[in-house]
Amino acid sequence: MGKHILFLLKPGFKATEGGPFYCPDSAGVEGFLKYEPTIEDLVEVKRIDFSQPRQEVIDLAGTANQGCPVLVIDTNSGVPEEANVSEETGRAFISDPIQICNFLGRQFGVARPHP
Questions:
Q1: What is the sign of the dihedral through the CA atoms of 8, 14, 15 and 17?
Q2: Is the pLDDT reported for residue 102 higher than 90?
Q3: Which of the listed residues 22, 35, 58, 104 has the most CB atoms within 10 Å of its CB?
Q4: Whose CA is closest to 73, among 50, 106, 51, 48?
Q5: The whole model's pTM is what?
Q6: How many Å apart are CA 84 and CA 103, to the nearest integer?
Q7: Which residues pair with 18 in a beta bridge?
Q8: Residues 115, 102: Cα–Cα separation, whole Å
Q9: Which residues have C-beta within 8 Å of that of residue 27, sequence separation ≥ 6?
Q10: 14 Ramachandran zone, left/alpha/beta (phi>0; psi -120 to 50)
Q11: What is the pLDDT of residue 2?
Q12: Using CB atoms within 10 A of its CB, is residue 14 exposed (0-12), middle (13-18) or buried (19+)?
């Protein structure tokens, strides 16, 4: 079985509004990874730059889905109920940070966000 691929934005980026900034949604998922560090051995985590286009994400989730965080589901895993499917690539992905953490928690039997 392959691995799910998790894309997170690197902190400290600059944007047209100034900066440095961090992505609050990526930071929330980073917090989950700190609570459950074994996840980084089970999922391919890619911390990418803020600038667009984000070609690595586009190649897997499509142009319209290059926001972060995004978890691209391993092709051998089926499509989880909380996932969307890219019309461009056919790959399943989850882009909501709480849903990402819930899915990974269920998938690997670790703590999940409290409902």
A1: positive
A2: yes
A3: 104
A4: 106
A5: 0.95
A6: 13
A7: 15
A8: 10
A9: 11
A10: beta
A11: 84
A12: exposed
